[in-house]
Amino acid sequence: MSAIRAFNTTFSKAVRQPAVRLNATRSYASQAKSLKERLTEIIPEKQEEVKAFKKDYGNTVLGEVTINQAYGGMRGVKGLIWEGSVLDAEEGIRFRGKTIPECQKELPSAVPGGEPLPEALFWLLVTGEVPTPEQTKSVSQEWAARAAIPEFVEDLLDRCPKTLHPMAQFSLAINALQHDSHFAKAYSNGINKADYWGPTYEDAMDLIAKLPNVAARIYRNVYKDGKVADIQLDKDYSYNFSNLLGFADNKEFVELMRLYLVLHSDHEGGNASAHTTHLIGSTLADPYLSFAGGLNSLAGPLHGLANQEVLRWTMKMQETIGKDASDEQITKYLWDTLNGGKVVPGFGHAVLRKTDPRYMAQREFALQHLPEDPLFALVSKLYHIIPGVLTEHGKTANPYPNVDAHSGVLLQYYGMKEQDYYTVLFGVSRAIGVMSQLIWDRSLGLPLERPKSYSTAHLKKMYAKN
């Protein structure tokens, strides 16, 4: 039996007993309330706030929908509640009202002056409060204690052919983890609607905790020797994930992983993976089934797969025009791309109308840690050149870079060159955002999502001129 399976056996009872986990959490932070205890206090307050707001403003018109929006993927339609983050077209993402630089400054880190810990961001997304270092550590330790995956899930992943895409394996494993869903069991046993959030919380914590073991097992099976290290109970989430992947000896990579998991976690509720998770969750499917659906949408080239698409395009450019290409050569390559009817990937965004703050956070990391890397040098030139070219081209509403234009370059630099795996990293991160919201979906009793649709023929009858 492997060390991980022994770990699984040791903690299997604790993983299935919420009361045991809660007691363990109290031991981590004896002088402070645990996340679940704090959430128990906050939920009634938020429920009353929402109830009063709906009473006063429930019939207020939030926005209008045009026919172009209906045909255009519902872009800009205002119709979702998402507590954790709001995306402003000019300002970028705010997590519970805080910008990325504010989160980098205020959220606890593992080392002085280091990147914020994903555990701290999760606390912020769930509660709206910046956690103390002690509270952050309690989440780190609780996730480590919940991290073991069942032996049958290990066997399932070990039997997957290496040719099966990592995202397909990831989704497969998440569906299999549903076997131990607290919410599914509670619902089957007739739980009161007011108590839905409790088992949803337990599933969300279990799911996030187990993702590094699942994701790393896929990586080690497909690209390495199949051996996966043990979870270290005294280490933070990103360190453990880096260690399972085989990169923990590089402290800079561990810091990058902390930043990566924070930046890719949440981007309000309208993006495909967030909306899909929310939509499936609204049917009262448990968090595992809901997140598996979100992962499948994340795998698409217009969503999470975009980061590897950008990297491949950038590396092809470097191969074509050389590592020391001039601004003139780069500009010509860009115009050749556009005039050939192709797009410049990694630039533009459905909502943003400025440089993505997530891109800037990664750029600042690169300037600090890998300023001389040739691929970053090219990306840096593109940062300065592409907006002008796209503006002159005149067919792009936002000519500025988004997060996908940078993340792959950083991973390449530190030796993670397996591009098909990048979306799995994105998926581990995205769970932090969508699970925090799913807890609130159940806490606020949000109903089944069911918008109205029309056919083209019906719209013509409604609006076509005589």
Description:
- This is Citrate synthase.
- Belongs to the citrate synthase family.
- It holds the Pfam family Citrate_synt.
- By secondary structure, this protein is mainly α.
- The chain has a domain at 305-414: Cytochrome P450-Terp, domain 2 (Cytochrome p450-Terp, domain 2).
- The protein is 60% helix and 2% strand.
- It is built from 22 helices and two strands.
- It has helices at residues 3-15, 18-28, 35-57, 67-71, 100-106, 118-127, 133-145, 151-159, 166-177, 182-188, 197-223, 237-245, 251-263, 272-281, 287-298, 306-321, 327-339, 357-369, 374-393, 407-413, 422-443, 456-463, and strands spanning 85-88, 92-95.
- Strands 1-2 form a two-stranded antiparallel sheet.
- α11 runs antiparallel to α21 (422-443) and α13 packs across α21 (422-443).
- It starts with a helix and ends with a helix.
- Residues 1-30 have low confidence and may be disordered.
Task: Give a brief description.
With 466 residues, the protein is mainly α. Helix content is 60%, strand content 2%.
Sketch the topology as an H/E string, one letter per element: HHHHEEHHHHHHHHHHHHHHHHHH
Alpha-carbon Rg, integer: 23 Å
What class, by secondary structure content?
mainly alpha
Can you name the CATH architecture of the domain at 305-414?
Orthogonal Bundle
Low-confidence blocks of residues = 1-30
Mean residue pLDDT: 91
